[in-house]
Automatic annotation (TrEMBL):
Keyword list, A-Z: Signal
Occurrences of domain SH3b (ranges): 33-97, 113-175
Signal sequence residues: 1-34
Protein name: SH3b domain-containing protein
Start-end of Low complexity biased regions: 96-122
InterPro entries, sorted: ARB_07466-like_C (IPR058593), Cell_Wall_Dynamics_Protein (IPR052354), SH3-like_bac-type (IPR003646)
Stored SMART domains: SH3b
Biased amino acid composition, Polar residues: 123-133
Organism: Propioniciclava flava
Pfam family, one: VldE
Region ranges (Disordered): 96-134
Length: 459
């Protein structure tokens, strides 16, 4: 009877364990089970307790790995590799690996030579190529031992006892900050961390929206220096708000008085009217820019991404609204809409562009033709439109992106759509029954289409 009772207890325990396997694919139990490895399915807050009313301690990025061995009312207590411990709701987590200590690991063939910090969740690969196998995901904030070897933008690391490779763009190195902290700011959008105070300085990771970081008091015309993970980095000032302030840190955009269209293949946008002024961006033929009406010599003041900038006036033509297209058609470009490569689009792609402009006034940037593309020939052939999503990590912006993506999926035949990509998912119009399918990891938010909806059309 005692043996039968123990058997019955095991059956009951097994049923209880299975009951915690929800739609999200999370497998967790309290007590006897080993710690589980999980990853975030989107940007999500880590809270001080098991409920949405608790204080936010930090943020998990998409695919960031955490560990957990307990839950309470649908909330899981998780710990990041950087040591942050808090609570995340189960909907935003999925199981990604075996319990700790459950698998053997190949031995490293080289000793460690220093370490680096992972600036954003990134794939760990078997060799220095995006075509190589993925063996895991290094979480943002993780400290990774280095072997000292690099290869074409890749860094060899020691990962779980074996020599592996990570894109160098996602690793932060350098001396620790000695700067005194003078204040704090909160980001209003996801921002690139840069090694210096200008757009030309290399990006070194991504800082999520609503992050609160320490400042050093040093600024440039457009950037603020911060202390992030013990190192000095720079972020765009106009996307920050001083902590304790009710308004943005940067002044409002200047008033537009007209618009011009870029008439050359590419045109520098500079921070000042000087011929050698700092280049903050490059725009291309067909781009429409708002102007303030102010000139300085041969330079024209324009409004770019909400700030006053300067361009060489001879490379622009006055007027806005309607741009003549190569095949005789036309599109309406509203004032304030930033575009590039629209004049080289095919008629099918122009129909997509016109529908986005007419139906989604929230969209302020749309790109079309460009000379090259890493993944397909659609952009160079004028068959693709990129609908850029502002504040793309915010839920409202995510919903807007899906509204646009699903509209063109539903009406694919009317617009001759071939496929759509959004948030690392792809819809093939030739196989509508398959729906939205996961796409391979291409390494960054832009390449994975988190910040824009890509719509390709048939020839």
């Amino acid at each position: 009877m005692r043996r039968a009772g123990r058997l019955k207890s095991k059956v009951v325990a097994t049923c209880m364990a299975l009951s915690v396997l929800g739609a999200s694919g999370v497998v967790l139990s309290a007590g006897a089970w080993a710690t589980q490895t999980l990853s975030a399915t989107t940007w999500v807050n880590v809270r001080s307790g098991p409920g949405s009313s608790y204080r936010v301690l930090g943020t998990l990025s998409p695919s960031q790995s955490v560990t957990s061995s307990s839950s309470q009312g649908g909330w899981y207590k998780v710990t990041t590799s950087a040591g942050l411990t808090g609570w995340v709701y189960k909907t935003y987590l999925k199981a990604t690996g075996r319990s700790s200590g459950s698998s053997s690991r190949p031995a490293s063939t080289a000793g460690a030579s220093g370490s680096a910090t992972v600036s954003s969740a990134v794939n760990v690969r078997t060799s220095p190529s995006t075509n190589s196998g993925v063996v895991g995901v290094a979480a943002r904030g993780a400290s990774i031992p280095l072997t000292g070897k690099t290869s074409g933008g890749w860094t060899e690391v020691v990962w779980q006892g074996a020599n592996r490779w990570i894109s160098s763009n996602y690793l932060t190195r350098g001396s620790a900050s000695t700067s005194a902290v003078t204040g704090q700011v909160q980001t209003t959008a996801s921002l690139y961390l840069r090694t210096g105070g200008s757009l030309s300085d290399a990006p070194d990771g991504l800082l999520p929206a609503k992050s609160v970081v320490d400042t050093t008091g040093r600024t440039t015309a457009d950037y603020t220096e911060i202390v992030y993970k013990g190192a000095n980095r720079w972020i765009a000032t106009r996307y920050t708000t001083a902590v304790g302030s009710s308004g943005p840190a940067a002044p409002s955009a200047p008033q537009a008085s007209g618009s011009v269209t870029v008439t050359v293949g590419s045109l520098y946008i500079r921070s000042t009217s000087a011929a050698n002024g700092n280049v903050v961006a490059t725009v291309y033929r067909g781009t429409t820019l708002q102007t303030t009406g102010v000139t300085s010599g041969d330079r024209l003041q324009v409004i770019y991404q909400g700030a006053a900038r300067w361009v060489f006036q001879a490379y622009t033509s006055a007027g806005g609204g309607s741009a003549s297209l190569v095949d005789g058609g036309s599109v309406t470009i509203p004032s304030g809409l930033t575009t590039s490569g629209i004049s080289q689009l095919t008629s099918n792609a122009k129909a997509v562009f016109n529908r986005v402009v007419a139906s989604y006034p929230q969209i302020r940037t749309i790109y079309g033709w460009r000379a090259s593309s890493n993944w397909s020939s659609d952009h160079p052939n004028g068959r693709a439109v990129d609908v850029m999503i502002r504040n793309w990590s915010h839920q409202g912006s995510i919903d807007l992106g899906w509204q646009i993506a699903n509209y063109f999926a539903t009406n694919a035949s009317s617009y001759n759509v071939s496929y759509i990509i959004y948030r690392q998912k792809q819809y093939n119009a030739a196989y509508p029954s398959r729906g939205w399918r996961a796409m391979e990891d291409r390494g960054s938010a832009t390449e994975n289409h988190y910040d824009h909806v890509h719509i390709s059309v048939k020839p």
